[in-house]
Amino acid sequence: MRQAVFVPCSNGVMRQGKKQSYGSLQAGRGIAAILVVIFHTASFVGGNSKYWHREWLARGLAGLALGVEYFFVLSGAVILLAHMDDIGRPATLPSYLWKRFRRVYPIYWIVLTALIFGYKLRPGIGAEYLTHPWAVVSGYLLVYVHTPALNVTILPVAWTLFHEVLFYAVFILFLIGRKIGLAGLALWCALSIVSLVHPWGLYYALYLFSPLHLLFAEGMLVAWLLRREKVRGATAFLATGACVFLVAMVLAGMAGVISDGVALIAGAGAAFLVLGAARLEEQGKLVVSGGLRFMGDASYSIYLIHYPFFMFMAPVAYKLWLRFPVPIAVPFVLLTLSAIAVGSAMHVYVERPLLKRLRAR
Fold this sequence. Notes:
By secondary structure, the chain is mostly helical. The protein has one domain. The protein is built from 13 helices and two strands. The protein starts with 11 loop residues before the first strand and ends with a helix. Residues about 5-20 have low confidence and may be disordered.
């Protein structure tokens, strides 16, 4: 089963002495998060034999999981845009580490701890995750510290967070020096390409050199292009990206799973989408609504909470449906909207105040 992750991060970039904030980057995060929520709704409604078990639904919507590929590209672009002026400045490392920590860990730890207590209270849901002590340790660190933990995460969707944190670690090389950063990124990508044609037999290598890491590099390339004035054809980039990404979604839906090849096709489409949308926004031809910006801001909370929400609420919804059978679209839509609403509320009442307090320190 595929999951995704959405980590809140600054999306500003200095252009011609002014701070350029791309609303399209925030909107992209929000849209990608919603795609993943819908995918997981389909997984519970269609793919889980305990509930409605509409396999055609889970299979047909499998392509929505490609929201994770979109976000990995987006994350690579955002991190480079936010820290491009810090390249070659080791003194900025403490600030970089603190920003990355406060964005990822505090709200994640809250959800993770609550989920562990939930597993204890409802041992029939997710209890198997707690039988792996190293999975608990790795879960809190977001760093795999023992090979058996590679197959288990306490929060099922948190597997992508491990890759995100790994990318943050690789990016540290750029703060040390531009050449060191480029060399480190090139080596990382080369080993990730090797894993495409010759899968690693070692557990850690599967994590350290996943082909998905190529998507971070694509995002960084997009960020570099955005800093150059000579890039033209924003509409063509956007249209091409949308078509390529749609093709990848269709291929995933036809297969019912996402292969490395489809993931890389989706990543290429996402790169074109991000570049085209940002350029159109710079030209004043694309205006992002406040609602989409909010969904982008709330996307990390929505991501963290939606899967646990489904784990605990799908059994309740299914029992109600057995008593009051309605078209399958009704529980599908209600579960999706409820998960988004709960995640949005957590952003407003927990994540946002927490971030505000941590920024003040």
